[in-house]
Amino acid sequence: MNKYLKFEDLHDFWNFSFRDSNSYNKSSRAYKSDWYGNVSWEEAKTLAISGWIEGLNEIKKISVELSEIIATKIVRYEPEYGVGGGIVDVGAFLSNSPEYFMIKKPTEKEQEGKIVKLVCSISFSAAIDSKVIIQRGAMVCALADAIEMSGFRCEIIVNTTSFSKSRKFEVDVILKKAQQSLNITELAFCLAHPAMLRRFMFSVAELEGWADYAHAYGIPHEAKDKGDLYINEIYSYIVPNSQAINWVTEQLKKLGVQIINN
Q1: Within this chain, do residues 121 and 61 fall inside the same structural domain, yes or no?
Q2: How high is the pLDDT of residue 128?
Q3: Count of structural domains, the chain
């Protein structure tokens, strides 16, 4: 069994994953515990539809500090003219301007609407603690917010991929298209709540027959389409907030966003 499903809209994913199945394995409907983020199946559905307000508190711990970095440390280079420099502006030279040399002057960076596809894997091992999933998701939410603050337009896809018996099962859900605004409460649930994988992605696996084919829903695997920026599993433990901030700024640098170092 090799299967790939793609949902172009988050609400289409909810409508599909909320359905019941004839699967023998139904971990998605198990009693609530910390492993599921302390929500039952019905409680998880409510959060999925309404957004996870409590999750915003974790995101804000990173975002507030990050916003200051983005506002003050992201740079771009614009030309400044002078009587000496490394690059000659031919037009200025031919017009007899005395300042026909260009030098690069750092200013606030503007990406002018360039689209970045951010693919975030939530294929976590069963051993990963819920608190780690929540913090990791908060980091990714803060990153998505920072990407758009930097001037990019961000398309966000959440992915789960599992492997078993030489076969693969993969699901992509588009959480945000480039032209859509960022809904941080939806993002918080989909990227940071354990129930997104352990209830709703598992439910899809049950509906598609994967849950009965693959032992324990399979082994976590990398996504096929990694987009422009691919977020796989980061840490298996809680990290200090300063380390989370550093991780976010490093991801921004991968996109060519230049950060001024103190």
Answers
A1: yes
A2: 94
A3: 2
Task: Name the DSSP letter for residue 204.
Answer: H
Cα distance between residue 163 and residue 123, in whole Å = 10
Same domain, yes or no: 32 and 56 = yes
Contact 103, 88 (CB under 8 A): no
Last residue of a domain, one of 92, 108, 124: 108
Residue 109 has a pLDDT of 46
Same domain, 194 and 222: yes
DSSP-based three-state secondary structure for 121: strand
What pLDDT is stored for residue 168 in this prediction? 97
173 and 191 inside one domain: yes
Predicted pLDDT of residue 148 = 86
Does residue 213 sit in the same domain as residue 83?
A: no
Specify the pLDDT at position 195.
97
Dihedral class, residue 94 (left if φ above 0, else alpha if ψ from -120 to 50, else beta): alpha
Q: Are residues 92 and 158 in the same domain?
A: no
* Whole-structure pTM value: 0.83
Q: What whole-number distance in Å separates Cα of residue 185 and Cα of residue 61?
A: 15
Distance CA 211, CA 25 (A): 6
**Closest to 205 in 3D by CA, of 122, 137, 132, 119:** 122
10-residue stretch averages of pLDDT, the chain, 262 residues long: 94 97 97 96 95 82 71 52 50 51 48 83 94 91 86 94 96 95 89 96 98 96 95 85 86 83 62
Q: How far is CA 50 from CA 47, 185, 189, in A?
A: 5, 8, 10
* Side-by-side strand order, sheet with 87-88: 87-88, 101-108, 74-82, 258-259
State the residue range of the domain holding 241: 3-71+111-259
DSSP 190: H
